[in-house]
Amino acid sequence: MDPALISLLEREEYKRLSPSSIATLLELQGAGLRNDTAWLCPINIFAYWTMLYASARFTRWAFGRSSPAFRGLNNEQQKTCVMYILNIVATTAALAVQLVCSSSLVEDYTVAGVRSVFAAGSLINGLYLFELVYRAMRLQMIIHHLATVFIICFIAVYVVDSLHPSIIATSYIWFFQATTEQTIFVALLAYRLKSSHRFTRIMLRFSAVQTLVFKMASAIGLLVWYGIKQRHNTATAFDKAYAAILILVLTVLMCTQFYGSWIVWILARRLERRQKTDARVLGSNTSSLGELFSPSVDEKDGLDLERQMGSVGILAVV
Length: 318
Fold this sequence. Notes:
The chain contains 14 helices and no strands. The protein is mostly helical and 318 residues long. The chain is globular and about 65 Å long.
């Protein structure tokens, strides 16, 4: 047997794996999976971008035909709504692929499962890179997207370079930072398209809490997993770099998440106050017609708030 393989199998972390998991990792090592192709996957990514572009064009055309509220938005707001739909579809697909390889959490690896982890990462990376090009974005969101792309690429290279079994499970936990945000896009789309105030308000509040809880759980899981499985990995430069990158990237992602959830919660409160103000105006017998149809102070505040947080787009980071 190749001396390199013997050295690999003598690692402490391999001794607790099942024979089938060890065979899977050895098969991946011999399949030509290298760190210069595993995360770039240029043909697949370009095909994916083509699909996203075609989907964006079709979605915008469909909304333009069916939604008066959508037609009333400016160009950038329409692009934002389109990206909400693409984010819902792509992150749901990534979550489904991720769940296929749930056995990775207990370090039971199969070739299909490990490739599913890479596929989920490619879906998220391709989506975020496309969004960076497709529409104007605020600095907070750009930082979030670039941080996510970076950590997915780093872990992919880390996996194929070291074949540490625990890193595959780490990538699985990391992806929950990006694949559990569907509710926020539904809420923001409802807000943009002027859906029922009650439904929009409930969805905004629910999504603000749900995304924060899920992201915090993912962050805690990563730290616990690192403490249990990875803190003793110091043999390579990747091992040492990951310890610092874990804290840095998690801090960036959680800061954007806390800020985003706070903004969306405030937006729900403003929407509720606006609704109450409109109800008082409608119920007043002394209101003038001009007062009835002029924007309330709360509505103006809500619009200012929306502009402040980048057309509510900051929550694409959660």
